[in-house]
TrEMBL record:
Organism whose genome encodes this protein: Duganella vulcania
Swiss-Prot/TrEMBL cofactor(s): Zn(2+)
Enoyl reductase (ER) domain sequence ranges: 12-344
Record PANTHER family: ALDEHYDE REDUCTASE
Protein name: Alcohol dehydrogenase catalytic domain-containing protein
Pfam families to which the protein is assigned, alphabetical: ADH_N (PF08240), ADH_zinc_N (PF00107)
Keyword list, A-Z: Metal-binding, Oxidoreductase, Zinc
Protein's UniProt keywords contain Metal-binding: yes
Keyword presence, Oxidoreductase: yes
Membrane-traversing stretches: none
Coiled-coil regions, chain positions: none
Amino acid sequence: MPVNVLSYAAVSATEPLRPYRFDRRDPRRDDVVIDILYCGVCHSDLHAARNDWGWTSYPIVPGHEIIGRVTAVGAQVSRFKVGDMVGVGCMVDSCGVCAACGQGHQQHCLEGATFTYGGADRIDGSPTQGGYSEKITVKQEYVLRIPDGLDPKGAAPLLCAGITTWSPLKNYHAGPGTRVAVVGLGGLGHMAIKLAKAMGAEVTLLTRSPGKEDDARRLGADHVVLSSDPARMAAVAGRFNLIIDTVPYVHDLNPYIPTLAFKGTLVLVGYLGPLEPALDSAPMVMGSKVVAGSLIGGIPATQEMLDFCGRHGIVSDVEVIGMPDINDAYERLLKSDVKYRFVIDMATLRAAA
């Protein structure tokens, strides 16, 4: 039978999130039922709640950085058992057979991935609802194993911020002997620094904020360069094999291209949209440099990232909040007033309601 669960939902683009009840589906033979312990708060949650992208249907329950314990499994489930600590990230299904899915890149499913909230179930068409809720029911192939020893609170943002930065670092071969720069020190940027450092790269933070040096070095940065200082940027010309650009709003990429080494790559992971001012292609053509984009990661890459974090003890720096604090947290997100990721303790959900 379907299970009625308590959650927090946005009911319009202009109203605060509030308590909301809805039915999770009757578990199928390949489903895993999870009691949610923690859920990270992503900028995407805020954008979806406020319909910034124009596609939101209400009510919507955000949350795609989910950590919890398995409470039931379907008859065909072989990967998990009751009591396992697991995670659910940005996707809960895909076609499974297209060229992208076949290569483990379910986020690029040619039929369209089914996202954790704001999507439609591929079997019954019901709206998918996210992790600001008591429970979630997910197909076993989209459930991730959380390594023993990782703090579940700090592990929650790995399901989005972690995989978003892991994918380009892995795909563009960050490691010993490479020089990686990270643009921006927020939720994504701080994970990029931690992961790149653990992978063995020399890591530099490029920032417009002079006050971030101490924190960047604590996180693992070897160098900090003030990107608003032309002399300091000139001093790192031709230096970086890879730049991970985590800035979530339109900004000028042109100052960063000269800092790429020959055949270096700048990867956008924070901003989606037209570039302004226009990108000057001359230094790219002359230096065989690349500007690329990256979208989260597939299920195999996400599990690989979690296992890597388990071996290296990497989690996100988090501020744990109660469910009643979510609307204030959204306002603070707009001001970048968090170091570096909010995580909701879902034990506070019932008290909030």
